[in-house]
Design goal:
Helix 7 packs parallel to helix 8 and helix 12 crosses helix 15. The protein is α/β, with parallel strands linked by helices. A 7-stranded mixed beta sheet has the order 1-2-3-4-5-7-6. It starts with a strand and ends in a 23-residue tail after the last helix. It is about 40% helix and about 25% strand. It has 3 domains: about 140 residues, Aminopeptidase (3-Layer(aba) Sandwich); about 130 residues, ATPase, nucleotide binding domain (Nucleotidyltransferase, domain 5); about 180 residues, Nucleotidyltransferase, domain 5, CATH 3.30.420.
Length: about 500
Amino acid sequence: MIRQVSKTELPDILVLEAECFPPGEQWSPTAWNDEFGPATVFGQYADGRLIAVASIVVTADVADLRTIAVTASARHRGIATALLHHVFDWAATQGARRVLLEVDDHNIPAIKLYQKLGFAEISLRHNYYPNHHDALVMEYSLSQPSSSSAREGNPLVLGIESSCDETGVGIVRGNELLANEVASSVELHVRFGGVVPEVASRAHLQAIIPTLRRALETADVDLTELDAIAVTAGPGLMGALVVGLSAAKALAAVTNKPLYGVNHLVGHVAVDLLEHGPLPQPTAALLVSGGHSSLLAVRDITGDITELGATIDDAAGEAYDKVARLLGLAYPGGPVIDREAQSGNPKAIRFPRGLTTPKDLEKHRFDYSFSGLKTAVARWVETARLEGREISIPDVAASFQEAVCDVLTAKAIDACEYLGTEHLLMGGGVAANSRLRALLEERARANGITVRRPRPALCTDNGAMIAVLGAACVSAGRPPSTLDIGANPGLAVQQVLV
């Protein structure tokens, strides 16, 4: 709660002053006592403790911001911004039309805060402070438009991702990436050989607040500055989704910001906006991850997406994990098999290509199946062991990987021809696979198709992809979600917003 502070609360102010400033820069009790004469002092309390204070003097139409202090534990939470807006609103009721302040030219965090609020430098006072630092004199017009409206079409959006085993918080301004913090719980699942939903959910609970704080600090953004909050509403693991969704709802309710519950799979498409800008229409999208292998027709990232095909059993990422396990390799299997395959012969073993026979293509032209491939690898390894033959792990890995990438890329090129588009986007965790990238680029080039792909760090689950999808929805004027939306583990890719 922000309210006017009286002289009787001077002891609380002095405690806060000592927490915020080194001894040589603190106001003395006498200075603060004298401040209550000409100045009006405002403070914000939390749990009975003063966490922020600001003083201001209004003379005619000019307000002089004398000081502001926020305790360290309350920073990067929008406290300073909210307090200053409150103080400025009060100053305007007293007839002020502009606000002036001086700030140490070495105090970069404070200068950035004032610049975000709309302050502009108007002069410089040399050797103003006892430490001989200069003072920037800055001015703010109380009649200027808010920062949110000034950024219209370039919304500042925070995104939360928690669909599986990564806790991601990203912040974007339009298509500009400001922060992308990820906390992975993969190490907790290694001994199980796969993601354990209950373990993932508990890890999200522990990681969500620290990850949020890191993202805000990296972007140098306060919650009050946000234009919207986006969150993964599905598909994914139910318990994991609920953690992120609950956090986003709480933030939206406290900050009074619109909430956008968005589709995780579409986020994997939208993340490329951060790298290459708006998508051509239409664009074919190949999504390949641990739980999904899909081909999409994307005409509008915020509302017109058609699923051309998907896996009918194991996704590509699942097949990688299972084959890695039977070869005695570590989890997760994708990166390990990719590394092993570098020294192997992809033609050593001819593993089957699922759903590629003429009969299969009649019904499953754009669908995938990797369960049979996994079984074929298992039988080959078992037979080799029974016959006492030496098993070359690199050759098996390379041959398996070639079978996966052959089918993924062939159907992706076919999807482009079907849609009549020369634009193909690749996303999802498996899109970081080196052979998949190389083969798709080779086949696309031969067919006059341009491939768009995010850098590897943006291919895996992250909050930035949710933030940029949310920003696209805000810019397109899509209506926000209600605070009573629920998690949907089976959310269809055609439903971008919940």
